[in-house]
Amino acid sequence: MSTKEKGTDLSRRGFMKTTGALGMGVYLGSSLGSTKTVEAQTARIREPRKGPLHTYLTFSDDPTTSMDINLAIQRKGEEVMVYYDTAPHGDDINAYAMKCKAQHYSTLVELYDRRALYRADLRGLKPGTTYYFVAGDEKYGYGDMRSFRTLPGGNAPVRFINGGDMNIGPRNRKLLKWAGEQDADFLVIGGDLPYANGIYAEFTDWIQWFHNQDDLLHVGGRMVPLVTAIGNHETNGYETEDIYLRSPFYMSFFGRQGQGGVYHSHKMGDNIALIMLDSGHLVPHGGTQAEWLEQELKKFQHVKYKFAAYHVPLYPAYRDFDGAPSASGREHWLPLFDKYGLTVGLEHHDHVFKRTKPLKGNQVVSAGEGTVYLGDGTFGVDPRNMDDKPLHWYNEKQGGIAHFWVIDAKPERLEIKAIDEDGKVIDELTI
Ligand SMILES: [Fe+2]
Ligand SMILES: [Fe+2]
Predict the structure, then answer these.
(1) N or C: which end of the chain has fewer CB within 10 A?
(2) What's the CA-to-centroid distance between 231 and ligand 2, angstroms?
(3) pLDDT over 80 at 36, yes or no
(4) Beta-carbon neighbour count of residue 5 at 10 Å?
């Protein structure tokens, strides 16, 4: 079944069920232009005429002192460079104080139209610092100057955004615009990115997806690094043990985050540990992944805020609680989340809004004594109608509302809110 968005229905789906009072809606800024304008922008795919075809940022090392600049270049074979500095120098590449040669990675993306992926690993950066950069090569040219900001480090406040199930249509563009205005340090995406299903016939959806991030997510030229987990719509069902063939584009673009592979972890300053998991799409919940998860949770057990992000929810708001992937998550991961005190589980895949009560041992517990699960992945796809769904025993709130989460990790507490496609705050909590 295709879930491609047609963009005809931008209204929310039904009402939110809740056990508590809803926060007042707050506009975060002016509304977008007409739907027609947004659709016209979405209808054509614009590839840059010069410079890299895609530029995006990921983390494979300490995000307070490093940044990975990922580049798609028209053909491999060129010497691809990133010129960077703490001061902007526009397109004058010789004025930048530092440079880093990007390394070519052979990927299955080259089988689309020979575009080649490179990555420049910038290391030894200063925490909490804005760097300006220009990237490209002599043959295909250099892109426009961009910038990024390293994480502040220590216990300084960090803001990040979470969402999943994005797609490439008008609703995703509306939500991305609001997300871009949050001035976030990074974006955590919980799978189902462009819904390209790991097949070449749908590769142009990736091109549009990268374009959407580029167009809307870096306000004032500053790019927001991406931290991603895999979803079912990144895979193709091809019968092979080779996970790069089963998910050729996702693994090509995002398979080298953290320690590499499909699951990875990140320490985002003193107070935040983030564990990105595969909810059974390329590797099973249990076995090697569960062993790795325990090792990571143990390593991070004294970190104040521990987050896990993955695609299929352990506590689904729309789909069947006893569905196989959710049950498998509860069997293999939940005891570990409980044992090591996971703070927040970031869940997706169900295309609705939900916030659970604090849970431990598969029961509701007092605030501060369990894990709160936030979801369920409607960062652009059409939300499902929840009107005929009773409020689940584990949910504090649920509803068919497209949204993303903004998480402020401060030394004293987590401040979390959900924002809908009109820029309104639809939920707020502190942990
Ligand atoms: Fe999805
Ligand atoms: Fe999904």
Answers:
(1) N
(2) 5
(3) no
(4) 19
- Tokens standing for residue 268: 């985002």
Which-ligand-closest: CA of 313? Answer: 2
pLDDT tens-digit readout, 409-427: 999 999 999 999 999 999 9
pLDDT range class, residue 46, cuts 50, 70, 90: confident
Q: Which ligand is nearest to the CA of 384?
A: 1
Ligand 1 mean position, distance from CA 428 (Å): 24
**What rounded mean pLDDT belongs to the chain?**
90
What's the gap in Å between 85 CA and the centre of ligand 1? 39
What is the number of the ligand closest to the CA of 195? 1
In DSSP notation, 179-207 reads HHTT--SEEEEES-SS--TT-GGGHHHHH
381 CA to middle of ligand 1, Å? 7
CA–CA distance, 175 with 189 (Å, rounded to integer): 13
Q: Letter for the amino acid at 225? A: P
Which ligand is closest in space to the CA of residue 352? 1
Q: Sheet of 272-276: strands edge to edge?
A: 13-18, 395-400, 353-356, 372-375, 344-346, 305-309, 272-276, 264-267
Residue 191 CA, ligand 2 centroid: distance in Å: 7
Cα of 253 vs centre of ligand 1, distance in Å, is 19
Neighbour-count burial of 363, counting CB atoms closer than 10 A to its CB (0-12 exposed, 13-18 middle, 19+ buried): exposed
230 C-alpha to center of ligand 2: Å? 9
Q: Say if strands 158-163 and 103-105 run parallel, antiparallel, or are unpaired.
A: unpaired
Kind and range of the H or E run holding 429 = strand 425-430
For the chain, list the domains and their CATH numbers.
54-149 (2.60.40.380), 156-430 (3.60.21.10)
